[in-house]
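Case study 2.
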Amino acid sequence: MPSSQVRRSFLGSLSAISGMGLLCGLPNGLPSALGIEPIERLAPGRMQLSLAAYSLRDLLKGNKDGWDLFKFVDYCHQQGIPGAELTSYYFPPDVTDDYIARLKEHCRRRGVSVSGGAIANDFCQKDDQKRSRDIQQTKLWIDRYALLGAGAIRVFAGSQPKDDSWPATRDRCISALQEVCQYAHTKGIYLALENHGGVTAKAEGLLEIVRGVQAPSFGVNFDSGNFRSTSDPYGELASIAPYAVNAQIKVEMFPEGKKEMADLPRILRILKDSNYSGWVALEYEASDPPLEAIPRWLEEIKKSLHSLT
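Prediction:
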């Protein structure tokens, strides 16, 4: 393992993630062969339910039938859930601080917390200008989500260019993540690297990158439906759960790319066994109409969470 992959150091400090009760405190000086340590947590873990705006993407794109993020927050309130993940894709293209302030006040009046956010980025690309653009865009959304009071933003790694070596791709991604995580730390917000295909299609690749990032305010976005190139996605999820600072639940799994219904109690038990405390956001992507299916799946997750207490 090259020197760039020595385990993360948080400089002996404890960093708190707003509203989620997670603590990180990783000591210096351990051999890199040990890899990154799991996030220190208090037992028992406590999870809160949220809904990702991406679940209603077909309505939010183009404000179909009057759907926007304000209406989405109202919908979360109607479903009796405490959190809403406000995906950046559905903000107005000319979003202003005034818009963010009004949206934050709207959430407050509805009793709905902004559980997190999501942006699109590729930190593996070779083009320095494009990668720099994505870094600056990430910092812009860090500012915006910090204003909203979100505790974490899920980010992507990207894909290995065809003409590039894995070490070079990995190190570019690590360098970009270190820069944006250091910036996120100044705003009191976490960045959560999602297992989202590309170089993070398997837990091994994801954690190799995570182990190389020497910066605070960083962890994993645990997405239950995204390990699609393995016969044991539940085993892969168990390996990343100890590093999660945000979690998303899908109702389908794809072992070796073959679709099957997810075992929701098993997924939540994996998080529980790691003493995960924080948001669990339903990200609905199945084929049934979302306005019909989402309430049913939220109830299933509520029952599973209740059975774990």
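The longest helix spans residues 128-148.
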